[in-house]
Design brief:
The protein has 125 residues and is an alpha+beta fold. The chain contains 3 helices and 6 strands, in the order H-H-E-E-H-E-E-E-E. It has one domain: Nuclear Transport Factor 2, Chain: A (Roll). It has a 6-stranded mixed β-sheet with strand order 2-1-6-5-4-3. Helix 1 packs antiparallel against helix 2. It is globular.
């Protein structure tokens, strides 16, 4: 792990702020704060570029899982301009986490996300 973990932890915190944003205005602002203008998001279900499309993917997840929030699972590990971390999608009513995964992000020179490569480790049947 890099000696400068703050940049990775800060980038990941902004990432989760975007995924947990409620309302279109908050989502738009948090995506812009977390991602570079031409940033990308790729997982088994999506492959998009740019703030509008990333916000659409996040909004679709909120529609599919109302009352859920994303939380960090474990710690953030990073080196150079790359970090990895695990996450869970948690039902706020009972604390269950039917979906979990891990993501790898790359950062630009301003510590905004240049790319996300997401993996789904646990999904509902």
């Amino acid at each position: 792990m890099s000696a400068n973990t703050d940049r990775y932890e800060t980038a990941v915190a902004r990432y989760f702020e975007a995924w947990n944003a409620s309302g279109q205005d908050a989502l738009t602002k948090s995506v812009a704060a977390a991602w570079a203008t031409d940033g990308t998001y790729t997982d088994p279900l999506a492959d998009v570029r740019g703030h509008d499309r990333i916000a659409s993917v996040i909004a679709a997840a909120h529609e599919q899982f109302p009352g859920f929030s994303f939380r960090l699972l474990g710690s953030v590990d990073g080196h150079h301009d790359t970090a990895r971390f695990g996450w869970e999608l948690v039902d706020e009513s009972d604390g269950s986490a039917p979906v979990a995964g891990s993501d790898v992000i790359t950062l630009d020179g301003e510590d905004r996300i240049r790319s996300v490569y997401g993996f789904l480790d646990r999904v509902p049947g």
